[in-house]
Amino acid sequence: MEKKYYAHETAVIDDGCEIGEGTKIWHFSHIAKGAHIGKNCKLGQNVYVASGVVIGNNVKIQNNVSLYEGVVLEDDVFCGPSSVFTNIFNPRSAHPRNSPDFFRKTVVKKGATIGANATIVCGLTLGRHSFVGAGSIVTKDVADYRLVYGNPAEDKGWMCECGEKLKFGKAKKAICKACSKEYRNLKDRVERIAAL
Q1: Closest CA to 191 of 154, 156, 164, 166
Q2: pTM exceeding the 0.90 threshold for the entire prediction
Q3: CA separation for the pair 142, 77 (Å, rounded)
Q4: Which element (helix H / strand E) includes 73?
């Protein structure tokens, strides 16, 4: 049966994983048995996808990213180079916690961006279209459309679906200067105003 994805000759693709049509997997990457990767994804050099990881459609994972069991990336997620995921909160070499009972699930919702060298502590949810700045350490959940950065990452504003920072006026509404999408600010959350 002809495969409908591309894998570089140096990539290791274990039997028993699922890879969607149009996906490209580059040099020295390893996809483990039981991993699920959607359609039209791009996995850069030296990416590891563990058993049980779920990756949606149109996800871009840059070089040197490891996704461990318990990580879920929904559609249209972007992971910058060397961004870091874990799945055990309190690891010890002398007291292994390699059973799934110890794994904490991390979910990155549709359209979220994680900047280069950011670290996502396990057990969190990054909201839809949220944006994590490069080099940040994320230690708590991130709301939809929220911009966070720093160590630890703190709230720094709101982002449009297209990746531009939103500026809210007195009416608690914002129109993106780049794409004209409209949003309303509901104090601790932002939602998009649907076009008619």
Answers
A1: 166
A2: yes
A3: 14
A4: strand 71-73
Inform me whether the pLDDT recorded for 150 exceeds 60: yes
CB 52, CB 72: distance < 8 Å:
no
Q: Tokens 């950011």 identify what position? A: 118
Q: Are strands 113-114 and 78-79 parallel, antiparallel or unpaired?
A: parallel
CA 186 – CA 196 distance, rounded (Å): 21
Task: Round to whole Å and give the CA distance between 138 and 189.
Answer: 18
Using CA atoms of 111, 115, 104, 143 in order, give the dihedral in degrees to the nearest 10: -50
Pairing of strands 71-73, 119-120: unpaired
Q: What are phi and psi of 101, to 5 degrees?
A: -60, -25
Amino acid in the structure at residue 64: N
Residues 23-82 have pLDDT tens digits of 999 999 999 999 999 999 999 999 999 999 999 999 999 999 999 999 999 999 999 999
Closest by CA to 103, choosing from 118, 82, 88, is 88
Q: Please give the angle made by the CA atoms of 37, 118 and 87, to the nearest 5 degrees.
A: 55
Q: Strand 30-31: give its sheet, edge to edge.
A: 12-13, 30-31, 48-49, 66-67, 84-85, 119-120, 137-138
120: enclosing H helix or E strand: strand 119-120
Return the structure tokens found at 8.
């570089």
